[in-house]
Structure formats: C-alpha cells, structure tokens
Amino acid sequence: MATGAVATKSVGMEGSSAKVGYGPIDWMGGWKTCIFGTLALMVLAAVHWYYDSLYAWTVGIDAANPQFTKIFMGQFWVEVIAIGAGTGLWWGWLVRTGRRIVAKPITADEEVRRIAVFWGLISMTSMTLYVMASFWPNQDGAWHQTAIRDTAFTPPHIAMFYFWFPLGITMTIGTYLYGRYRLPKVYGAEKGFPWSFFFLIAASVTEMMQVAFNEWAHSLWITEEIFAAPFHWPFVTYGWLASGIFALWAETILRIMGIEKEVEDSATAAPAA
Amino acid sequence: MVMQARTAEQAAQLNVALNKKYKYFDYKWDLVFWLTAWPVVAAAADVTKLLFAGDWDFWTDWKDRQWWMTISPFAMIIIPSALQYIQWLAWKFPTGFTYTAVGMWAASWLGRWLQWDIFTGYPLNFVWPATIIPAAILADWILLKSRSFVLTSLLGSMAFTAAFWVANYVTLAPFLQPVEFMGSIVTLSDVQGIEYLRSATPEYLRIVEHGSLRTFLGETTLVAFVFGTTLAVFGYWVGQGIGRLLAIWPIGKFIKVI
Fold first, then answer.
1. ipTM metric
2. CA atoms of B33 and B23, how far apart (whole Å)
C-alpha cells in the first residue's frame, strides 16, 4: 500500500489542455460531479418516495400480508443488495485506482479540479444527510402517529433505515477515500486520520447503530405516542457530529490558497530563470 | 460585508487584495458552499426540532401555552447558534441564524407537504410548522450590534423566544377561536385534534396543562416564556459548542496513526 510517497509539488499549467467551458473550475468541468451527482440523489429520493406512496397505505400496513413480502420486503432486498454492491464497487475503485495515482505529481489545474470534485462529493453527502435526517423522518413521524407499527420493517423504515442511512456511510467514507488518494497534500496517509472525517463518518455510522437501539427500545416501551421520546434523542446528538463537514470545506479552501500562492510564485520566478 | 479602512496603509492593503487577480478563486466556490451546505444545515436543524420538540410542532392542538413555548425555542435555537458562530468566524457575516432558519423553513414545509399532507393525508392547516425566520433575523441583528456571543446568548435568546411566540401567534390565533362542538365550548384546534385521531392524542391529554400552571391566573404563557428563555440561553451555548468543537476545531487536525 502506497502510504508514504505523495505528490509533493503542484505545477502551474501554462496553457491548459481543457476545452473552453470544461476547465477545473467550469460548471461542466470540475463542478460536474456537484451538479449532476446532487441532482441524481434528488431524483432518486423523489422516485423512492413516489414508489412508497403507491403502496404504503394499501399493502404496507400489514406485514403479514403476502403482498407486503413481495412489494416491501422485495424493495428491502433490492436496496440492501444495491447499496452493498454499489458501495463495494465504488470504494474498491477509489482504492485500486487511488493507489496507482497517489504518488504521481499533478498539475495545479488537476489538483484544483479534484478539489472541485471533492466539493461535489461533499454536496452529495450533504443532500444524503438531508434525505436521511429530515425528509424520511417526517414520513416516519406521520406514519407512526397514524398506523403505529407491527414490525421494524415499516414502509418508511425500509426506505430510510435500510437505504438512505447506509448511503450516508457510503458517501462519507467514499468522500474520505477520494481525499485520501486524490488529494494527498490535504489528506495524505502520512498526516494521520483527519478529525473532520472522524466526526463526519462517526455521525453516519452511529446513526446506523442507533437504528438497532431504536427498534429495541420501541419493542420494549412501545412508545408511539411521543416522537420526541428520550430514546430518539441519540439520533440528534449523533447527527451533530456531522458538523465535521464544515472542516472539509475549510481544509480544502486553504489548500486552494496554497495553490494560488504556488502558481503566483512560479510565475514570478519564471522570467528570472 | 464591506470592510472600512481606518488608515492609509490599511486602505492600500485592501486595495491590493480587492484588485488581486486569482487563477482559481471565483464566485463559484462561494456559491457552491452556500448552496450545498444548506441541505445538511436544514436537516440538522429540522431533526433537532423533530426529535426534541417535534410533537409540539406537528399539530395545531399541541401548540399550547405551556410545553410548546417552553421547549420549542430550546430545540430550534441550537443549530442556528452553531451556524452563527461559523459564519461570523469565517466571513464576519451576522447571518447564521437566518441562513439556518430559511433552510429549516424549506425542509419543514417540504416534509409537511409531501409526507404529512400528500402521503398521509393530514391537511396542512393542521400540521403547519412553526417559523423562526423573524426570530432568527432578530438574533443575527443582536450579534451585529453587540459583536458579542455572550450578549447575543442572553439578549438574543430572549429576543428569539419572544419573537418566536409573536410570529407564530399570528398563524395560530385563528385556530384558538372558540366554537361549540358536541355541546362543549372548545377551540378550532381542539376540533381538528378530535377529528384526526392520532396515537399521541391520549398521551397529550395526560400531559398537557396539568399541575398548578393551569391556575396561574392566566399567566401560564408568561411563565412558560420566561422559562423557555432560560432554556434557549442553554440551547444557544449547546449550539456554540457544536460550532466550535465539531465544525471549527477539527480544521487541519489529524489523529496520528501509530
């Protein structure tokens, strides 16, 4: 595993080879991941919600119904397999390709483009956290106030706990792996493990673990009456750990300031050379 | 925000910074940050409200003069306070409360509209969320004028709680009008609560307005407001802790791998 050797010098690119409009800080260049990745998540959430809306109140209120097994447990298995396979493939690709490129010197243009892509991944993480922590909990609250629960696999739970919660882990760790191998000057292995990512990843992992406690607590105390029940509070406090996301923006913007300085210095030094 | 130079030297430095040509810095970094931070900020604010005081925000008949006034400002001031610290530190922008409030407004309404109204079938005039936008503007204004987090925590939290009540009372007042229903005088919100039975109804009837506050000569709201204010001061510092320790402190810090 290439951990020690990293690109140590950014080189300002004098005539960028990128086409006009596709450069490192153009919308269709470095920012493409941010725009299309975030939009894709919004569309996915909308489709997911629409599918739930079609069947939740006809099939989804009785877990003993054979149709429930087909429509909702079928959805559960599709979600689990898709998120498991997708996560494995994406993380595997990030690590496999990352090991090859982490030590190669890159131009300033390329490093800035990667930071823009990194910000795109942060944007996708931000959107995922919204969908898992606000959009679906609203449906879950409405559901339990109305239909109570007969199993841990209610329609809102199947969407929220077994797809969007794990997707939070996929996005936070995937974003770290991107930074770890593609932005070694910021997140290179020799620096250690960043506290910013520690908090952000901890938020998504502890939220997933809290699901187990939540269902256990509901099965013990059967509290459907109060959404603000004390055993729901860990969802909130664990969620606060996601504040580490702000440090990611700060750490990378500081690196861009460094790149600007390097480019400026190389331009100043060039005539004298 | 415009910085004003106090000396000729400062003016020269600002002039250089203003006219400096950057290769990579442009408006897009700011735009992307302010837009893409919104979902996670809105989610944090919304889920903090939902799970700390959500029941009192879900229904008109729960928007009462005792518990709603007491715990809602506490639950809804935490994340705005964290953002106020972050945005003041980074840009000297007194905008963190308002930024969070607008995000939470969007997240709350999207949730109530799609999940509570369209998905579940509750009418929006029964499940509308409370707003903190006017209260947030006031709290940001107090930071702008005082330039002190301590003063903002005291005066801002008080103003926040008061403005929360005033701003939402405008929306709530029509639902507090008396009507005769099945031989009894009740409020319109009571009728909504009776017509839309929820799992929370029996529990609410057990916990609302019991104890001596009910007989406090009509001063229940005032007592709840004052206690709500003290809780809001506490919530403000919880938010400051989140902003300082979890968002800003980790910048550039690493756990050393052995």
1. 0.92
2. 19
